[in-house]
């Protein structure tokens, strides 16, 4: 019986699952940050190896293939470097590398052709054809795109609060929500500006711009209570996201997988996508399951809907 490992390497954690060629998961391991871009290559690769070792555990299995999935620019050297690091740890195997849009897509469906729409801190859409990435839309960062993303929404939220505080814009329930978040920020002893503006400025300018995404959930809260400003922000986000993914998604019957924190069931963005693509939308699940299915595909064995179901059924107990 042949075995594979699927790795879902994220910015805060690396998760690996060991499974046999039928899709039965037999081992699971975790380690720290696994994104080489944000964590550094040495730390990330070390965590990939540790997660694999933890997944193998006492089984004594040496996998026939490891599928590593991670975000961002993968780098041509990632696969060979991990291959060498695993060999040094006594795991002599082939390594393949794919983007996390692929693991997100295949966490929800085994259909080899379809689409992914992701809205989290950033926003990106993908087209998958015959199991391969065939097209991308957006995902080009907060300066150039990320329409309908958490950054876009959060940025609009803090701008609306600032305008309300200074009387430059309409009153909005967002202001009180934002000020509750920034309340612990300091202010100058004496200044002609309102202290609320200082608190907001220190929070926003004291962190990376993309961290404006942290304010995006406030728009959902205020909109649920009927706040006009929040509703406008979300309407604009929906328009941007639909325009972006619509440039990629065809009017066919292939599935549209929804991923990311802003596309949870019941969110305005998720509802808009389900209305635009009725009967086609699926919710992404654990990316580790998608990496596992990709590993089976790379091994050349059956990786169908039954395989994905078996992966989910046998992975869940291992997660503890």
Strand content: 15-25%
> How many β-strand runs?
10
Rounded to an integer in angstroms, the radius of gyration calculated over CA atoms is 22 Å
N-to-C SSE series? EEEHHEHEHEEEHHHHHEHEHH
Structural class of the secondary elements? alpha/beta
| Poorly predicted ranges | none
Strands in their spatial order, largest beta sheet: 3-2-1-4-5
First and last CA, distance: 26 Å
Work out the helicity level: 40-55%
- Summarize the biggest pleated sheet: 5 strands, mixed
Shape: globular
Number of DSSP helices? 12
Average pLDDT figure: 93
Explain the layout of strands and helices.
Layout: E1 3-9, E2 14-20, E3 25-31, H1 36-39, H2 41-56, E4 65-70, H3 78-88, E5 94-99, H4 100-106, E6 114-119, E7 123-129, E8 132-138, H5 150-166, H6 174-182, H7 195-205, H8 216-224, H9 228-246, E9 256-259, H10 268-276, E10 281-283, H11 287-299, H12 305-319
Parallel strand pairs: 1-4, 4-5, 6-9, 9-10
Antiparallel strand pairs: 1-2, 2-3, 6-7, 7-8
The gist of it:
The protein has 320 residues and is an alpha/beta fold.
How does this structure look, described?
The protein has twelve helices and ten strands. The chain is of the alpha/beta class. The strands form two sheets. The protein has a five-stranded mixed β-sheet. It has a five-stranded mixed β-sheet with strand order 8-7-6-9-10, with helices on both faces. Strand 1 and strand 2 form a beta hairpin. Helix 2 crosses helix 3. The two termini are 26 Å apart.
């Amino acid at each position: 019986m042949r075995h594979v490992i699927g790795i879902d390497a994220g910015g805060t954690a690396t998760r690996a699952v060991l499974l046999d060629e039928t899709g039965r998961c037999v081992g699971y391991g975790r380690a720290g940050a696994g994104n080489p871009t944000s964590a550094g290559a040495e730390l990330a690769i070390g965590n990939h190896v540790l997660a694999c070792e933890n997944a193998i555990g006492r089984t004594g299995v040496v996998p026939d293939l490891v599928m590593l999935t991670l975000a961002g620019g993968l780098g041509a050297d990632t696969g060979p470097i991990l291959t060498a690091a695993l060999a040094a740890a006594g795991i002599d195997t082939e390594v393949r590398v794919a983007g996390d849009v692929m693991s997100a897509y295949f966490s929800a469906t085994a259909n080899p052709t379809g689409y992914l729409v992701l809205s989290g801190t950033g926003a990106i859409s993908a087209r998958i054809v015959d199991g391969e990435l065939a097209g991308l839309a957006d995902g080009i960062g907060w300066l150039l795109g990320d329409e309908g993303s958490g950054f876009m929404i959060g940025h609009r939220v803090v701008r609306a609060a600032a305008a309300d505080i200074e009387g430059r814009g309409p009153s909005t329930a967002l202001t009180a929500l934002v000020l509750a978040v920034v309340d612990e920020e300091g202010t100058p002893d004496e200044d002609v500006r309102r202290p609320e503006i200082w608190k907001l400025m220190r929070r926003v300018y004291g962190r990376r711009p993309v961290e404006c995404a942290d304010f995006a959930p406030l728009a959902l809260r205020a909109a649920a209570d009927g706040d006009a400003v929040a509703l406008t922000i979300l309407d604009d986000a929906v328009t941007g996201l639909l325009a972006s993914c619509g440039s990629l998604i065809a009017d066919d019957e292939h599935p549209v997988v929804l991923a990311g924190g802003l596309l949870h069931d019941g969110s305005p963005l998720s509802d808009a996508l389900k209305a635009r693509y009725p009967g086609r939308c699926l919710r992404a699940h654990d990316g580790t399951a998608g990496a596992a299915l990709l590993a089976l595909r790379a091994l050349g064995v059956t990786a169908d809907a039954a395989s994905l179901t078996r992966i989910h059924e046998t992975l869940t107990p291992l997660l503890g």
